């Protein structure tokens, strides 16, 4: 990007440690960009590598939001900069742990140059990439022609298969499939999961079951003699 944009338009930046390679000059460019004037607004949109750690990314995004807040003249210190974080849905617990105000939308982000995450894929091949945002979900109108509908109870657009659960009082699906409610767990779970009485939770039918009370054992092979990190089959499964 540095080949096509001037120093006043582009900054070489490491989002994992909040480092500007251009030093104070680049920081000044960011400050000028974040300083809203003439009615113009700023929103941060990030599409980081999916293999990156959530915590350092969230820390960098928080620092940018703090800078934005200091440059505004509203005087409201509780306002956060609008942002959209593009990341897989299974990182939701980690993201909310770091930035609890973010909400995951149902919209499936597709990539034209990705072998799997392309528009039109169905079932388990659907893209797991979602939008995490602090903007109210009702402001995102998702296309009905792509299989989204508006949920009156949740006041947001969701995937057509994401049915509203009266027990949970939300549309629970995370992966685009229709989830089912488990009365024992008191929450909705994936359709392929079954409630396991020894484990006291829902899991896949062939999961390593905890047979001995008080002993978690290995989640990979089910042995009660070791944990997963010490499992002798761990490296073998990884090679296969």
From TrEMBL:
Keywords: Cytoplasm, Methyltransferase, Transferase
Keyword Transferase applies: yes
Annotated Pfam families: N6-adenineMlase
InterPro entries hit by this protein: Mlase_EEF1AKMT1/ZCCHC4 (IPR041370), ZCCHC4 (IPR039846)
Cellular localization per UniProt: Cytoplasm
PANTHER family: RRNA N6-ADENOSINE-METHYLTRANSFERASE ZCCHC4, ZINC FINGER CCHC DOMAIN-CONTAINING
Protein name: rRNA N6-adenosine-methyltransferase zcchc4
Organism in which the protein naturally occurs: Ilyodon furcidens
């Amino acid at each position: 990007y540095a080949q096509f944009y001037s120093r006043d338009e582009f900054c070489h930046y490491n989002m994992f440690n909040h480092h500007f390679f251009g030093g104070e000059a680049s920081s000044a460019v960011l400050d000028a960009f974040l300083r809203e004037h003439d009615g113009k607004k700023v929103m941060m949109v990030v599409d980081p590598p999916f293999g990156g750690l959530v915590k350092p990314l969230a820390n960098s995004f928080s620092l940018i939001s703090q800078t934005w807040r200091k440059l505004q003249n509203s005087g409201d210190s509780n306002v956060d900069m609008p942002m959209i974080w593009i990341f897989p849905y299974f990182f939701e617990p980690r993201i909310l742990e770091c930035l609890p105000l973010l909400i995951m939308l149902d919209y499936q982000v597709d990539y034209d140059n990705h072998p799997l995450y392309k528009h039109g894929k169905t079932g388990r091949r659907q893209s797991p990439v979602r939008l995490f945002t602090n903007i109210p979900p009702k402001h995102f109108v998702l296309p009905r022609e792509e299989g989204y509908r508006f949920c009156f109870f949740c006041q947001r657009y969701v995937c057509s298969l994401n049915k509203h659960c009266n027990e949970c009082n939300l549309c629970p699906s995370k992966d685009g499939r229709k989830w089912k409610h488990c009365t024992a767990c008191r929450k909705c779970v994936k359709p392929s999961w079954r409630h396991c009485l020894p484990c006291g939770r829902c899991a896949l039918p062939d999961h390593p079951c905890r047979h001995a009370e008080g002993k978690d054992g290995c989640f990979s092979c089910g042995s009660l003699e070791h944990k997963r990190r010490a499992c002798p089959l761990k490296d073998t499964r990884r090679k296969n």
